[in-house]
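Readers of this paper often ask what the protein records in our data store actually look like. Such a record has a labelled line for the sequence and another for the backbone structure tokens. The tokens are whole numbers drawn from a learned vocabulary of local backbone shapes. We quote a single record here, exactly as it is kept in our systems:
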Amino acid sequence: MTTAVISVSAQCAADDIRHLLVDRRIRRVPVVQEGRVVGIVSRHDLVAVMATEWVCQVCGEPVRGEHPPGMCPKCQATSEQFVLQEQPPGA
């Protein structure tokens, strides 16, 4: 067993965690805040986040993530202009 524990902070971006899990070939990573474990992120959690897609109602730009972005990267519309795009099963 490994004695050194790889962990991430609560503010760590999902894409950074994805790279960590793939590069280090690990399945789960603890989330630490102020020296205490506050959760665990698994590969399954990241797949769910990456499968969530928001679409800008102004320009149609799709953006993936758990929450809509603060601003559209294409037309600069606010987050209120984004709607959750339903994904078909198996997509």
In short: Strands lie at 8-9, 28-33, 36-42, 53-56, 62-64, 82-85. Residues 40 and 72 are 30 Å apart (CA to CA). The first helix runs from residue 14 to 24.
